[in-house]
Automatic annotation (TrEMBL):
Entry's Gene Ontology BP terms: regulation of DNA-templated transcription
Short name of one Pfam family: PadR
Organism: Sinomicrobium weinanense
InterPro entries recorded: ArsR-like_HTH, Metal_resp_DNA-bind_regulator, Tscrpt_reg_PadR_N, WH-like_DNA-bd_sf, WH_DNA-bd_sf
Coiled coil: none
Protein name: PadR family transcriptional regulator
Domain of life of the source: Bacteria
Domain Transcription regulator PadR N-terminal: 19-89
Biological classification of the source: Bacteria, Pseudomonadati, Bacteroidota, Flavobacteriia, Flavobacteriales
Amino acid sequence: MKIENTKAQMRKGVLEYCILSILRDQDKYASEILKTLKDAKMLVVEGTIYPLLTRLKNAGLLNYRWEESTSGPPRKYYTLTDTGKLFLNELSSTWEELHNAVTIVTSQNTSNNE
C-alpha cells in the first residue's frame, strides 16, 4: 500500500471543509483560496479546486460574482450562501467530533504500545 495515496485521500476528505472555512468571513477568488490552502501546506492543484468549487456552487453552498481586476481579466469571487453557512456549521461540529475521536483512539493506541 502506498502512503502517498492514503495521504491524498485524507486531504481530499477535508478539502470541502477547508474551502468553506476559508470563505466563512470573506469572499475570495479561486487563486486566493488556492494560495491559502498551499500556505497551510494542503497540497492542492488548480485542477482539483475548480471542479470542487463548481460542485459546491451546484450544491447551493456557494455563489459567485464577477469583479473587474486592475491587474488582468475579471475575477470570479466566491461567497457562502446561507445554506453553505449552515452546512459549514454542521461540518465544523462533525470535524470536532471526528478530531476528538481520532485523538482518543490514537492516544490509547500509543499508550498501549508502550
